[in-house]
Amino acid sequence: MTVIAASAGRRQPRTSRLPQVALVALLSVGVAACASTNRAETVAAVPDDYRVNHPITIEETLATLDIPVGMETRYLPRGMNDNIAGFAREFMQSGSSILAIVMPSGSGNSYAIGAVAVQIEQVFLDAGVPLASIQYRSYPSSASETNAPIRLAFARISANAGPCGPWTDNVSRNFRNEHYEAFGCATQNNLAATVSNPLDLLYPRVMPPPNAARRDTVLGAYQDGDPTATNFGGDGGAGIAEVQE
Length: 245
What we know:
By secondary structure, the protein is an alpha+beta fold. Helix content is 36%, strand content 17%.
């Protein structure tokens, strides 16, 4: 404590401002440290990996294709053969073992159903589906259903990232530049939809053996001092037609 003489001639005790200023500064540093620590903990607690927020799940789903059949239908509708053949190719690529032709039972178009089902089986066979993989099944229907379809179905492994949205986050108020809730959802869904084999997302494939013939060619050219790059010839560009005046 510092004592300063008063102007009236008597001595009065007076507290120095230096310790107060030092105390205020010390408290300020402590509060700032707490705020910094809390902010660091808050930022660390926010998930910043879109793969965690929107994970891709691998599951078994049912691929289906409905073939409309009318009362007077005796042949497959025009253009439907290509759709069925494409469905058969998907089945072959899926690795599934059973491709089902599911017909309505008791419907009013049962006669047409039988005629069309035989044609569908032939399209499958022409597409390379083994006869042992084709199975006939049925689902209940009523006589009043005169347009009951034939359903083609097989089980396959698929990748799914779930639905996106709703877009409720106000990105303009995101002062910490953190990931909003739907960040990365579209990217994950696009990856799940475009991957050829969903199991590739879980397990890597075995590396195929090298091309022995190409390896010998490259090594031989290298030993002889020749260029080892492949010459495709031309730049692949398209020419511009000349305009006659």
